[in-house]
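Request: When convenient, would you put together a sequence paired with its structure tokens?
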Amino acid sequence: MTNCTHPSSNGDEHGNLICTVCGETVGQMGQPYHFHEEQWNRFQETDHPDPFAIWLDTFLAEKEINIEAHVFCKQGPSGPNYIPLAVVIEFMKLTGQEEQNKIQMMLVKLDFANAPIIPLLDHLAGALAV
């Protein structure tokens, strides 16, 4: 595998992700190649749930946010990207501790002010546009 930085890939018959720009193998299907291995391993661990993930799931449930009902359209270098809220949530859970702390602090501030949180989640979706 390489450190290919091109934004798109397709799977081959062996389950490998192949970059559509340079043709190099960049990862395995079912395992996002652009995550750091440490983050992916933390995501895969089911015996020790991440406290931020538990807090975020609880927060969204209390706010009655329907994760399946929101899809954000963000412009990226490749054109429009339709990013489901569920994907944004998973990326929030995979990010580093410092970023998680900042996200949590902002969500708590918005909640305290009784402000909507969807605009913040829409903003975070912009970071995922390719």
User: Anything to note?
Assistant: The longest strand covers residues 71-76.
